[in-house]
Each structure stands twice: as structure tokens, then as C-alpha cells.
Amino acid sequence: KQEEDTTDEEEEEEEEGQARSEHDNEERNCETETINNILLRNVLEQNKILLNKLCERDNACNNYKIMPDFNKTIKVFNGKEPRYQARAWLDTLNGVANLHKWPEAFKIEAVRANFVGAARNWLDGREINQWSDFERMFKRTYIGPDDMGEQWKEMLRRTQGRSEDTEDYYQEKARMCRALQLPFQILKTQILEGLWSRELSDHLLSITHKDEDDLRDSIANYERVNRARRERINNDRTQQLTGNRSTAKLNLKKDAAKESEETMTCFRCYGKGHLASECSRGPSRRTTAQPKALGIKIKCYACGLEGHISKECPTKLDKACRRCGSQNHFMKDCPKGKDKDGEIHIINQENAPKGKYIKPVEINGAYTVHGLFDSGASDCTMKNSIARKLRLETKSYRATLSGFGGENQILEVEEAVPLVLGIDGVLGTEVRVLIVPDTAQVYDMIVGRSWIDQPHIAYYSRVGTLKVGYSDQNPFKNMQIE
């Protein structure tokens, strides 16, 4: 029994020894793994540091920076811009530099490339090595301290130009108001006061807006509707102009067809069936008895009395010149007026003076001639050669033009033609155009008050400009008066 007990104790001790041996082995293995992990982490960390250094060395050797196109990113600065524009220019340059990660040398070179005029002279007179020095000197010279009063004045001076796009004006004006931290209602008032179009300002004033985006949407909608309306009106006016041309041609043909031989009277020979321009008989055969026999009242254009013509006037002296008073020749042969007439007659279309009163005149929608816009002339006149060239069907018409065709001259008109005239796309009603000799005027045609004073025609004259429009369409409402 004692031997059995001894054997059991020995077995227990042996088992305990084995257990302690296994535990010791496990502890040694854990310590070994921990040491290996630490060594591995250290090796990995060293490899990472070495790899980063190699990458930095490669970047330092192969780092190429591309300079962008300054014309598209940075505007030219001349030193005369307002303060807010100078501040915006500097912010733009810093933004581009930060985006492309420019070094300071690139920033300074970008400044040199975009400074012109007075700003370039300012830059050349200073030694700048660091970007911070440039910013400090630039802000001191061109931006200065924040002056709310000056910013307010600049905002008030910003108004929309006559041909400026509304979107460009709106965005810049709104930015200036935001810089002053103005509430939206004051911002809206300032924008509306600076608009060029009074109609747009009144339209926006009658609408309640919540914010800037709401205001901009209203402006965009108004511009879109107004643009569509103008296109429609222009198309309708073009169609109306085309229809008026066709109607004018048709009316002229009808008038010519109605003019029968029985109603045609020649005021040269007082015969029937032809006009004075087609008369084969000279004016010397015209007598007082012929119009009296036809029941036509005649009037002397020399003395103004009725009953005789000027060649039979008893008060008219033979060979009397009305220019110089000599009784040895007529006015047409007067040597005193030859030099002056010569000076007038040598003026042709090439050397004729060109100015705002010289306008292309559209005739019956089919022909165009050069005309003189003359508000001092009572009637419209046309050269005889132009009427023949255009094959216009003239009618007999007797009139006297005083002070026309030269100094102290009286011109007797024998023909006229009804025409529809147009200037600058504005058509007038049919007017009577008097046919005068080519020597009486320089231009192909003179447009007088018989066309100008029509109620639907309006015009204004400024320095170097003469504009004609329809009076019912307010053509000059946007005219800028200086």
C-alpha cells in the first residue's frame, strides 16, 4: 500500500513537471513572436521612410509646372481700375496660383506678364523678391484700407450702358452691393435705378421678389419675351414692307392705264394725246390763243398777271437779264453766272459731299437712288435723267420753284410723278415728285417736307447721325441725350 501511494505521488509530480515545462515553452514562444513582430514593424517603418525619401527625390527632379494662358485666366491690369476691381484681380491671381501650386517666382512672373501702362512702371520701380512683399505694396497702392464711403460711391456710379448686356450689369452690380452687405430690398432698388430700360425697371418694381435668384429669373424672363416680341414685329414689318412695294407698283400701273389720250394735255403746245416731255413742237409755238381756246386759265410768271404768258408779257424787256439787269442777253446766257454755274455743275456723285443728310432713297420698292434729306425744301424733286433712266411715267404738272437751282433763279416745272418713297426702312404715303433739269440740283433726288412732314414719320438729327423711324413706335425712346 505504501508503494502504491509512492507511485501515485511520483506520477503526480511527473505530470506537474510536464505541465510546467509546457507552460514555460509557451511563454518562450510568445516572447519570441513578440520580438519578431517588433523587428518586422521596425523594418517596415524603415522601408516606408526610405520609399518616401526616394519619391521626394524623384518629384524634385521631374516636377514640371505648366503655365496657363493668362488671356483666359488673368486680366491685364493697368493701375487705373477702381479699388474693387484691383481687389478682384489680386484674388483671381491668388486663386490661379493656388490651383496650379505655383511657387512665388511663378506668381511674380505672372504679375510682370499682366501689368501694363502705369502699373508696369510702378512695378519696374520696385525691387520685389517675395510674394508677401508684393501683396503688401499692391494693397497699399491700389486697394488701400476698406473705405465704405468710396465703395458706396463706386456702386452708385455703376449703371448699365446703352448696349450693355443686362446680365453683365446685374451680376457686377449685385456683387458690389453684397460687398457693402446691403439687405436684399436695398440691393434690388440700386439695381433697378441703374437699369437702362425704364420699361424693365417698372416691370421689376411691380413684382415682389424673395432673393437675388428670384430677381434674376424675372429679368431673364422679361428679356426672353421682349426678344421674341421684337423678332415678331420685325418680321411683320418686313412682310408689310414687301406688300406695300407690290401695292405701289400695282397702283402705278393702274394710274398709267387710266391716263387716256383724251385726258393728256401738253403744256408746251397745249395739244392732246401726249405730254410735254414727248412734244415734238418747240416752246416757241406756244401762244396765248391756244390755252384760251381750250378754256385753260394762263398766268404770266414774269409779272404774275393772268391773260398772257411770260414771253408775251408787256412789262418784260427784250433781252433783259434778271441776274445782272443787262438788256443785251437773257439770264441763261449771263456771263456773271457762268462761273458759279460751272462750279455747281462740276459736282458729281463721286466728289459730292457725303454726310448724315445723304440717304439712300427707295423708290416704289424697286429702285434706290442717292437723295438729300432736306427739311427746308417744300417739295420732293428728282433729276430728269434719273426719271428717264428708271422709265417713270411722268404726268403734266405746272409749278414754279423760287430760289431753286442757283442764286436768284426761278425754275418752272412742267412734269411730276407720284412715287412711294422709303428712307431707313420707313415708307411714306404716295407723294408728288417734281421733275427738274439735271443742272438744277447735284443729287439724284431731294426729299422735302411733302414726305418728311407726314404724321407717321419721325426723325432726329444729332452730330454725325440722322435717324428716321415710325412715330407710333417710339423709335427714339432709348436715345441718349448728351
From TrEMBL:
Residues 17-30 have a biased composition (Basic and acidic residues). Residues 1-16 have a biased composition (Acidic residues). Keywords: Metal-binding, Zinc, Zinc-finger. Pfam families: gag-asp_proteas (PF13975), zf-CCHC (PF00098). Residues 1-30 are annotated as: Disordered. The keyword Ion transport does not apply. GO terms for molecular function: nucleic acid binding; zinc ion binding. Residues 266-279, 299-314, 321-336 form the CCHC-type domain. It comes from the Eukaryota. The keyword Zinc-finger applies. This is CCHC-type domain-containing protein. It comes from Panstrongylus lignarius. The lineage of its organism: Eukaryota, Metazoa, Ecdysozoa, Arthropoda, Hexapoda.
